[in-house]
Amino acid sequence: MNAYAFPTYPSSSLVASGVTVLVSAWFLVAAGAILSDPSSPYTRKEAASNVPAKTASVEVNLRRVAMVPQLGTIHVSAKRTTT
């Protein structure tokens, strides 16, 4: 008989643990890069100022609204609570 010996390949658990170590190292380096990066001026919250809030106004053109055909009636009901 032929005494051929197959070459030894690493086991799947060895490959899996090697990939896990490489991925963990990659995420560790990425986390360090994120934490060492200075904050962006675009994402910083500015301090609250004493400027009064602006109010919004809405103008409705009733002639345009009246031209839309009525598709149905909407009934809105709600329960009031006494507080």
Structure description:
- The structure is a single chain.
- With 83 residues, the protein is an all-alpha fold.
- It is built from two helices and no strands.
- It has helices at 12-36, 62-67.
- The radius of gyration is 34 Å and the shape is elongated.
Give structural attributes.
mainly alpha; 83 residues
Summarize the model shown.
The protein has about 80 residues and is an all-alpha fold. It contains 2 helices and no strands.
Low-pLDDT regions: none
Structural class: mainly alpha
Major sheet: size, sense and barrel closure? Answer: none
What value does the average pLDDT take?
A: 76
Beta-strand segment tally: 0
Order of helices and strands: HH
Provide the fold topology:
Elements: H1 12-36, H2 62-67
